[in-house]
Design a protein that fits this description.
The structure is a homodimer of 499-residue chains. Helices cover 31% and strands 20% of the residues of chain A. Chain A is an alpha/beta fold. Chains A, B: GO terms for molecular function: tryptophan 2-monooxygenase activity.
Chain lengths: 499, 499
């Protein structure tokens, strides 16, 4: 175990500072996703002769952006042609870059990919519960829940302090300080310590010009009992966990601007349409047998080393001479069923009617999870809404629908929340990642046993073959996982090649 | 009192739907700030002959953007020439558009002014207290305070519930629901209901690739007692009040894109360099005496009506024939002393070193209030930081400094929080709005007595003269206040003109 493996890796914000030279050595990199691209880019700097073999006709792997003309055929499904208006798109793979993911941001900076804010938390967006007890089927603003729960809880605690029920728990000085904090935090009334609403939950009538009630009409808080019975915590949390933040980033124009920037620099180092059929290694090197997806012709590539970034879901179906133990490890990891749909809307009703600018509508509507509103094209005429983002059984069920049925499914849900949803709808593009060739799933979903047994084995690689990708990180499903895994594994590969 | 004054105004998101015609009638509009510009734009649509008289050589009033070449001479002060690199700027007047301000957004939409997100709340930004008791002079992330206060309060309340201290306050069913909520909200331990930190406060070491501790090293929470004693509530609040939101908007390229869009459409309807010296009215019309700031020549403009949008701080010093009562009302409103400084930094150390992308560093450092980080040019080399945003006595004190001293004041404070602050500094541009000619203050600061007595009188106007501006709204200091006041007052003016 090296220094990287000891956790320093997770603090790095730049590729490993490798010394020595890879001159005269050839590395075949399987897959032109973020892992393969960053490995190729860095290894080439060290002097390695690099060839990236990519089955798709473009770079990026799961980092895809559907815009006008983009085609996708799921396994056993019809071909979809994206018909969004020019300038509109959906990032149906990765769609947000957290500030904690300095590795992803590193390449955006290095390649001068313009970024814009992706609004990831919007307290003004609706929370809509089908099963929300007394608050069922009502459009609530996140800010209402946040302000009111905070207010009621603060009032409850403050009154307990006031009636000396917390004497056993807190010193009287801390009680005074706590009362002061609670009064601010919960916007409690002076004297009566009661929560009666606050402007942060929204006004009934906003302040404006004019006379009465120019100062704004307060709105009444939701009742504490109703909020508790609604179990709003099911969908709404006021503190987001790592690596979520209220504001994240997206490349201007689409997430695929990042792999495109790599691809432009790597040029014909990347061979497209090269589907890996067989991997063999011996003392002399590695041989990759390929199937050209355009011509149908077979060919072979020989290299001194191989960095395989194919998802395990794909790699385990390829003919290899890995040891039985390694092959078993490849099979130990389930892949996430994940579905998304982009709906082009002819009118930005969420902005115009509801004054919601980006962020997620949180809901317990089955198979929907979130309706996410675009963080680009503010106030323009049209926009592409993410109509669902489903996982697990939901994703499997929805993926069994035809593309037309998926659209209907999304519209039927969305119109419960937005009256204009169906009438504004123009066209759709959906994906079910577990049905996408060369991906076969959204991301690796490790369980504890596989993390313990299979993960260290896979990290080691076998012979001249190393693996890399989001699956070999604790940032599964994130581009940063792919990049940081690649950074770690090229260090390992370089160490072996230099030994 | 009309329907507008009854509060409908504050819900409007578009100009009033006026009918009839202003043909053959001339309106002199004093001031080309947002109020004057929107009034001119709308009145012209109705057929009025409109002339906007503006003392400055450009439109926008206090809506200004300092970029390379921008000049400002404060009263009794030296002339500042902005030396920021091309592409960099500071909005030293209004700098953020809340989603609640649909009137401002209305014109951004109408004129297709591109908007981008202005990060107004960033839990990753530092909170730095000089007087923070046990937490003094430490750089804390907002997320740490938020997560830890939430966690400790949830634990305290949950344990009180558990030990049946709240039986008198809540039914046992509500207590169960509350425990469930608190456990989620505070990330409490299962069983022991203890708060021990959470990933949302940040890791000691982030998850990444590799083995141990690839899953991320947890960070220890701040002690409840320390947080209470630090009185973090002084600067930090987890619920923002109206009209603040985590994400707001700014026009791409500078706030003055909005007045520029108006000015382009109004063309020579606006007469620049026209300083108002005298206002007289009689039964036949209004006469405005002007001083041309370029030639020094005097001239007069006659009109049927006048809409005066000059700040009251300016208007009350002009020779008018208003009644004594009206003149007294003009004097009833203090104007806010406000100061800002833009500091061009040669390196975006807040992004590169601290991973803070936009938002505000909150501090009790005297005279600073906030250090705000730019929401544009993400990951580029340089950026302009707002070094202070001070009000009241602080603003007066700092404004008495020379521009070089103001810079030193800002740097001495900032380097307490950011080690690279001084070394990265390149040049500065500061403003003290109370010392700016034609503005004489940041915004109107109404007290209750003046709202009761002077405000209704000023809203009525006198004779052929109506007033408008942020000062005649409950959105003082906001562009929306200026626009919505203009919308209200042109309706009044049109009603009188049509009578």
């Amino acid at each position: 175990m090296n220094a990287w493996g000891m956790g320093i890796a997770s603090k790095v914000t730049a590729p490993p500072p490798l010394t020595g030279s890879g001159k005269g050595k050839k590395v075949a990199i399987l897959g032109a996703g973020l892992a393969g691209l960053s490995a190729a880019y860095e290894l080439r700097k060290l002097g390695y002769r690099v060839q990236v073999l990519e089955a798709r006709p473009y770079a990026g792997g799961r980092c895809q952006t559907a815009r006008r003309g983009f085609r996708l055929r799921e396994l056993g499904g019809e071909e979809q042609l994206c018909r969004f208006d020019r300038g509109h798109y959906i990032n149906h793979g990765p769609w947000r870059i957290p500030l904690d993911h300095q590795s992803t941001l590193h390449y955006a900076r290095e390649f001068a990919v313009p970024l814009e804010v992706m609004v990831n938390e919007n307290d003004h967006a609706w929370v809509y519960l089908e099963e929300g007890g007394p608050l069922s089927k009502r459009r609530l603003r996140g800010a209402q829940i946040k302000a009111d729960m905070r207010g009621h809880v603060a009032e409850l605690l403050a009154k307990s302090v006031q009636s000396r029920q917390l004497d056993v728990r807190l010193s009287s000085e801390d009680q005074m300080l706590l009362l002061d904090y609670l009064a601010r935090e919960g916007a409690l009334g002076v004297g009566d310590l009661a929560y009666k609403g606050r402007s942060g939950r929204g006004f009934a009538t906003n302040p404006g010009a004019g006379l009465v009630p120019g100062a704004g009409t307060p709105s009444d808080p939701l009742a504490f009992g109703d909020l508790l019975a609604a179990r709003v915590g099911k969908v709404y949390s006021a503190v987001q966990e790592f690596p979520m933040h209220a504001t994240m980033f997206q490349p201007v124009g689409g997430m695929d601007r990042i792999p495109q920037a790599f691809a432009a620099r790597l040029g014909d180092t990347i061979r497209y349409g090269a589907e890996v059929r067989r991997i063999r290694q011996d003392a002399a090197g590695v041989t990759i047998d390929l199937h050209d997806t355009a011509s149908g012709q077979a060919s072979s590539v020989k290299a001194d080393y191989c960095l395989c970034t194919l998802p395990l879901s794909v790699l385990r179906m390829i003919d290899t001479d890995f040891s039985p133990g390694f092959k078993a490890a490849l099979k130990a990891v389930p892949y996430a069923p994940v579905g998304k749909i982009g709906l082009q809307m002819g009118r930005r009703f969420w902005e115009e009617d509801d004054h919601i600018y980006g962020g997620h509508v949180l809901t317990d509507l089955k198979g929907i999870n979130t309706i996410s509103l675009p963080s680009n094209g503010w106030q323009q005429r049209k926009g592409v809404v993410l109509g669902y983002y489903n996982y697990a059984l939901d994703a499997i069920e929805v993926s069994a629908l035809s593309t037309a049925q998926r659209t209907e499914f999304a519209l039927a849900a969305g119109e419960k929340i937005f009256p204009a949803y169906r009438s504004a709808y123009e066209n759709a593009f959906s994906v079910a990642w577990h049905r996408v060739q060369y991906s076969l799933g959204g991301w690796a979903e490790w369980n504890d046993a596989a993390r313990r047994d299979a993960y260290p084995l896979l990290l080691e690689g076998e012979g001249r073959v190393q693996l890399a990708g989001e699956h070999l990180s604790y940032l599964t499903g994130w581009q940063a996982g792919a990049i940081e895994s690649a950074w770690q594994q090229i260090e390992r590969l370089h160490r072996r090649a230099s030994a």
